[in-house]
DNA sequence: GCATCGCGTGTTATCGATAACACGATCTTG
DNA sequence: CAAGATCGTGTTATCGATAACACGCGATGC
């Protein structure tokens, strides 16, 4: 009787005839037809369900191989109600090695749990970030890790409220509760600054990112605290905020060096500013010492005293991944359960280490 | 009558009772129930189908907003038979700025077409690459862009044969036909080498990545051709292959500089080798000139003559994205059509530009 | 005045995979 | 030897969204 179920594209469309290999994505039914069994049996074989005769299973496996069958994980996750196995990662600038390493750390951890990472880049644009988060939620990612571009995190709050686990990286959540992983910005800045003070510097300049950025603000606070502890007051004229690019940083540093009583050392909140400052110092031919946050390649060949609060952005990503995976685990364990207590937000802090060159 | 359709989790599970906002991912039916319409009407409103009374549409939109409804794009793409809107990107090492910029280029282009990028990192591991590609296909990505880790590309051939558009970046496809985007490795290396020759150098050392890597082989070929054109024969003792890390490159360069008749210039096939060679030259205090492939930050402050064949990896990614998008466009246009001619594989080449420091 | 048309909605079937149940056949057991 | 247990497999319903069709109701046509 040749079992011609009325369904199946093979029947209705009649295909071209020549090759079966060209069919984009055969389905369980295609495999089933070829192996002369039902779709359910195919599904069972793929699930390694033991309740199938070895002979049948072999036929099915052969048919699947011949057709190049790959099961549709999206359809599967829909049916199973399991997650999609996707994790959304939203960063401000993937071109920055800092974030690409963070991404790698995230991927390494979540990948170890069978999850894949979907990356979105915001380019520091809030609207872009909103759109990305919206989209990731619509794609039903199992969770989101985000380095927010701005203090306005209402879209993240909405996603979290909607039941999507959110982990905030590099800055704390604002206006809602979520796991987060931070760098010891304050401590690192304080330690590095203290080091400059110990070396005898009393007039220290400060070059920082926009103060609206959490990390920048924290590092400024650490800097200020170190000065205060040494009985020194921070001088506004030595502080330049807002530089994001090396070129801007070079100009800002040149300004400081041109002051009547120029700083004998400069503290920079990130490697963009550090490199920019280096160029200014070099151009001025001044013996100014340099200190900053974030290590970078070739820092050792610059030929001036350089102290850096370094930290592992890979580890930052890994920790974010771990927090997210832990959340997903809880969620799975809770299942349909009623224990409405979602375990309060966790906060991890990645330490900084002091590196000295020159 | 209150229309209690027998379906719906709201009915069977009976929920907790307090808040609706906590429901993870409401569905069209939840919205429908709240707006007292059918699921189909909700779907129509979300599709902006004009055949819905404005009053009804407003009710639906209000209900959707109250519930925080986001439609399930995965389920939607399953029903529509449209793609998943995902593009797989597989690279060898995202921590390398080269690849992260490539990723950014890809994402910028495909993102402009409503596609999202799923990133996989292989760490140069072939098995890992196989697994990733397998997985991406199973997730039904609309296409894959890959920087192969190895000459063995059978898994890519399989994916392509299975009907998934594949674009190969940075090296050519091997053993199957696919669009690809390459760098002008040969031309760049030849030009840079010629520049060294023009500067009077006759003994030029070569530091390269493993010869199995396509780019490395091509660059060696360009180097050799330039020498040949100048009537010089390549001397094996000046050639060191296989260094992937700066530390290895430093040792290899030191070896060359320690030869009885050391090279007066070194050509390096990538920035790992260039930076490694720089350290060796600096340590030896030799006046050796340096040339290489791939620009890098701070190249201008090294204090020795440095010529670089630079190219834009962002552009490489963009071009790959464009090729893929073009393929997807064709596919969509062809639809169920029978014009079995899949337009032969395209090949794009990104040019290099000469940069000189020092 | 009765047929027809169009509009706004609801019903059913579908995408691919699979859980839950159903069913015929063989095997067990008192 | 009849009643039930077990095994291998097929059928139906489901996940969420939606195309195709169906349907009821008021308006228009001649």
Describe this structure in words.
- Chain A has helices spanning 9-12, 28-35, 39-46, 54-67, 73-80, 97-111, 126-138, 154-161, 185-198, 214-229, 246-257, 271-284, 313-334, and strands at 86-91, 116-121, 143-146, 166-169, 179-183, 204-208, 239-241, 265-268, 289-293, 306-310, 347-350, 353-357.
- With 358 residues, chain A is of the alpha/beta class.
- In chain A, strands 2-1-3-4-5-11 form a six-stranded parallel sheet, sandwiched between helices. A six-stranded mixed sheet of chain A has the order 7-6-8-9-10-12, with helices on both faces.
- In chain A, helix 2 (28-35) packs across helix 4 (54-67).
- The N and C termini of chain A lie far apart (85 Å).
- Strand 2 (116-121) of chain A pairs antiparallel with strand 2 (116-121) of chain B, so a sheet runs across the interface.
- Chain A binds a DNA duplex (30 and 30 nucleotides) through residues 7, 25, 27-29, 37-44, 46-47, 51-53, 56, 71-72, 74-81.
């Amino acid at each position: 009787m040749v079992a011609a179920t009325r369904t199946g594209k093979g029947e209705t469309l009649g295909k071209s005839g020549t090759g079966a290999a060209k069919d984009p994505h055969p389905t369980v039914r295609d495999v089933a037809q070829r192996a002369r069994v039902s779709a359910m049996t195919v599904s069972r074989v793929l699930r390694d369900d033991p309740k199938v005769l070895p002979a049948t299973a072999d036929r099915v496996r052969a048919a699947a191989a011949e057709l190049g069958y790959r099961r549709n994980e999206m359809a599967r996750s829909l049916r199973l109600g399991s997650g999609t196995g996707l994790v959304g990662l939203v960063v401000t600038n993937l071109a920055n090695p800092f974030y690409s390493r963070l991404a790698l750390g995230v991927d390494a951890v979540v990948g170890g749990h069978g999850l894949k990472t979907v990356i979105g880049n915001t380019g520091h644009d809030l609207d872009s970030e909103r759109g990305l988060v919206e989209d990731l939620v619509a794609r039903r990612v199992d969770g989101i890790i985000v380095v927010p571009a701005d203090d306005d995190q209402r879209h993240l709050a909405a996603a979290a409220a909607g039941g999507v686990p959110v982990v905030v990286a590099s800055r704390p959540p604002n206006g809602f509760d979520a796991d987060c992983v931070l760098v010891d910005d304050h401590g690192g800045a304080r330690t590095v600054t203290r080091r400059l003070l110990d070396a005898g510097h009393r007039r220290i300049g400060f070059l920082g990112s926009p103060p609206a950025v959490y990390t920048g603000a924290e590092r400024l606070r650490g800097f200020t605290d170190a000065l205060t502890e040494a009985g020194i007051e921070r001088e506004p004229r030595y502080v330049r905020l807002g530089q994001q690019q090396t070129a801007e940083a070079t100009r800002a540093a040149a300004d400081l060096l041109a002051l009547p009583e120029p700083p004998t050392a400069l503290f920079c909140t990130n490697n963009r500013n550090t490199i920019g400052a280096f160029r200014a110092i070099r151009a001025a031919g001044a013996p100014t010492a340099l200190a900053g946050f974030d290590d970078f390649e070739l820092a050792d060949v610059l030929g001036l005293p350089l102290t850096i609060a370094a930290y592992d952005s890979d580890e930052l990503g890994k920790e974010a991944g771990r927090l997210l995976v832990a959340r997903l685990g809880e969620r799975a364990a809770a299942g349909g359960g009623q224990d409405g207590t979602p375990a309060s937000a966790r906060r991890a802090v990645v330490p900084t280490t002091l590196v000295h060159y020159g």
